[in-house]
Specification:
about 50% helix; four-stranded mixed sheet; globular; six-stranded mixed sheet; alpha+beta; binds manganese (II) ion
């Protein structure tokens, strides 16, 4: 909840040092002190609109950063973040006093000075662009910028009203979504509420008032829930801390608007969070919650198995709680919790080695995308538009035929999918199958689709694709190809140069190839072939054989041996080439787990999900991924990726699942697709 008075009251170095002492005792106080003294001297005589000395601002920014448990470098840079922009100090001076790292961070958050012939909007976009590029080099740049923004928003009431609205809009548009994409949900929530307060004061006050009115009743309810769960966890000897969830006014407002619901309906959704030590306890606690109250199957989400792209992990379930109220339950480990609230900043808390941090934030594909396409967008408006689009948090999850999960923006098409797999796949894409049916390339994909791209050497991108593709990076890649094409046509000299450059090899995505290699070297694949030692062996993806299945090997051209089930339909068209088939035996496969995609169809009823997970746990299989949705009014489909030891194990699992009341069908996913 916002408490303006508390947050506006300025604090001094004593507070910072005190916060640091508890938050991060490893911080080098000498460096902090030195940065503080330098900032005090540099900002000497400057006053903020609130009437306070300017130094209070960098000080508060440093306190926010300290609260996020960031390192010495970041906190020092936080203290110094405005000296280059607002005082006579230069980057050279900073460098000589504080070194390269701190200087780079300060530079990253320093505005590009306005140049003649630039409108304010252009200068702003240029500054933003510069900051994002600096962020890709060092993600702490954006963390400092967000802390800066947060303190400016906390004190925005001292600005003239028209400035307030402009800054609040920019916060809502760019900075809050940026924070969200980096997983820094505490900061994004506060930024949104502060901006919401300025942009929609009436609605803000209404929600605040309504919450205050119902608070006592709600607290009592949640307290009971807490007690019930705690008692059960104690009995079972599972450690778990049950906490309430902070109220976020803007998200309530958004839900009311987007879902066209009343405050009452939204607020009736009660939520708790359970935090525990280990991942296995998360699933244990899920079981406990599902035993106490009936889950609503469609609302179960396993973000532990499939983290969101901002690294968020948690189990989400909604149950019909006491008195028939829907109760949202989030279950996660302490580390997941830190990541959920602080996002990328949590890395410093867990003191992971810097290379791990680098690797992880490189996985934040949107940052990679931004650097890729930002250079291409000369036009300010287009840059801002694409940036907003990339920050747009809605995303869908679709599958490759091999079961790999691909995240795409909402509204993405098979072309976006093809480029997300690999640029060459996109460039040679000629058609697409969704769930084994041919679809137009402009089809909008939905979560759960299994997408297969048909490629051809003669295929190439078309200008028309630009009209329907969704992600900025796809657009960029198509444009790059088209531009190259234009150049090729421009003249023979140009064209031969282009050809040299263009000796692209790829037909298989790189990581895929690495996987294949390591697969063949893996001793434990559990297959022997007479007389063959160093041969590339792959289990075919069309029938996904597992130990116990009657299998046969097919010698491919240049890609080793593919193992199929003997009755695999795809072998029929190869049957003329008898000499390319070889016999294969399973061997030493007992202790190896194989992933299998399994679907369970059922008539929805209470406790259904609980019964299914119970049976799976009795069958001693690991759930790698779980997904649930209701197709019609009451037909539920669950998709699992399970680890099985072999055919017998799979049979046992299938048998158990089929015997569950109201389950109508159980099948391996790929087989259904092929046999249909
Ligand atoms: Mn500042």
């Amino acid at each position: 909840m916002l408490d303006f008075e508390l947050k506006i009251r300025s604090r001094d170095i004593t507070t910072l040092l005190a916060v640091l002492k508890t938050a991060n005792p490893d911080v080098d106080m000498t460096v902090i002190r030195k940065a503080y003294d330098f900032a005090v001297a540099a900002h000497e005589g400057q006053v903020r609109l609130s009437g306070e000395p300017y130094i209070t601002h960098p000080m508060e920014v440093a306190i926010i950063l300290a609260g996020l448990k960031l390192d010495t470098i970041t906190i020092a840079a936080g203290l110094l973040h405005d000296v280059v922009e607002d005082t006579g100090a230069t980057l050279d001076i900073i460098k000589s006093k504080f070194g390269q790292e701190i200087t780079q961070l300060v530079d990253g958050v320093t505005k590009i000075s306005s140049i003649k012939n630039r409108t304010k909007a252009t200068a702003q976009a240029a500054t933003l662009r510069k900051m994002l590029i600096a962020t890709v080099k060092d993600v702490r740049v954006i963390i400092i910028k967000l802390a800066d923004k947060l303190h400016n928003m906390r004190t925005i009431i001292f600005h003239p009203p028209e400035d307030q609205v402009r800054v609040a809009k920019e916060t809502m548009d760019i900075y809050a979504p940026l924070a969200r994409r980096l997983g820094m949900s505490n900061i994004s929530a506060e930024l949104e509420d502060l901006a919401f307060h300025i942009l929609n004061p009436d609605e803000y006050n209404e929600i605040k008032y309504s919450i205050a009115q119902r608070n006592t009743e709600l607290e009592e309810y949640l307290d009971n829930v807490r007690k019930t769960i705690s008692a059960r966890l104690n009995e079972l000897n599972i450690t778990g801390t049950i906490v309430g969830r902070a109220k976020h006014y803007y998200s309530i407002f958004k839900k009311i608007k987007e879902q066209k619901k009343t405050f009452q309906e939204i607020y009736d959704l009660r939520g708790i969070r359970i935090i525990t030590k280990e991942i296995k306890d998360c699933y244990g606690i899920l079981g406990v919650v599902h035993t106490l109250w009936s889950p609503i199957v469609t609302r179960f989400k396993d973000y532990i198995a499939v983290p969101k792209s901002n690294m968020y992990q948690s189990l989400h379930t909604t149950v019909i709680g006491p008195e028939g109220h829907w109760l949202e339950v989030q279950i996660r480990t302490e580390k997941m919790h830190a990541t959920a609230e602080m996002g990328i900043a949590a890395h410093w808390l867990y003191k992971e080695d810097p290379t791990a941090v680098k690797r992880d934030y490189k996985n934040l594909t949107f940052l990679k995308d931004i650097t890729e396409w930002q250079a291409d967008l000369k036009d300010t408006r287009e840059f801002m538009k694409s940036l907003r689009m990339d920050l747009y948090e809605n995303e869908i999850f679709v599958f490759t035929p091999k079961g790999k999960i691909i995240k795409l923006p909402l509204g993405a098409t098979p072309v976006d999918f093809a480029y997300a797999i690999h640029t060459e796949i996109g460039n040679s894409c000629v058609g697409a199958m969704v769930d084994n049916a041919l679809v137009p390339l402009k089809t909008q994909l939905v979560s759960g689709d299994i997408v297969e791209i048909l490629t051809s050497k003669k295929g190439h991108p078309s200008e028309a694709w630009l009209k329907f593709v969704m992600s900025p990076s796809t657009r960029y890649k198509i444009r790059t190809w088209l531009r190259k094409q234009d150049k090729d046509r421009a003249g023979p000299e140009e064209s031969s140069k282009q050809k040299d450059e263009k000796t692209v090899k790829v037909s298989i995505p790189k990581d895929e190839r690495i996987k294949l290699k390591s697969f063949s070297k893996q001793k434990g694949i559990g297959i022997t072939i007479d007389g063959a030692t160093d041969v590339l062996i792959r289990l075919s993806q069309c029938c996904q054989p597992i130990p116990g299945d009657d299998v046969v090997g097919f010698v491919t051209r240049g890609r080793g041996i593919t193992v199929h089930k003997r009755n695999c339909p795809s072998l029929k068209r190869l049957s003329r080439e008898k000499e390319r088939f070889i016999n294969i035996l399973w061997e030493g496969a007992e202790n190896i787990f194989y992933p299998v995609k399994l679907a369970v169809e059922a008539i929805d009823r209470s406790n259904l999900l609980k019964d299914i997970t119970n049976e799976l746990s009795h069958a001693k299989t690991n759930i790698i991924k779980a997904e649930a949705h209701v197709e019609n009014s009451d037909a539920a489909i669950f998709r699992f990726i399970l680890e099985v030891r072999g055919n017998d194990h799979l049979k046992e699992i299938t048998h158990r699942l089929k015997n569950i009341r109201s389950v109508t069908r159980v099948y391996k996913l790929n087989e259904k697709v092929i046999l249909k």
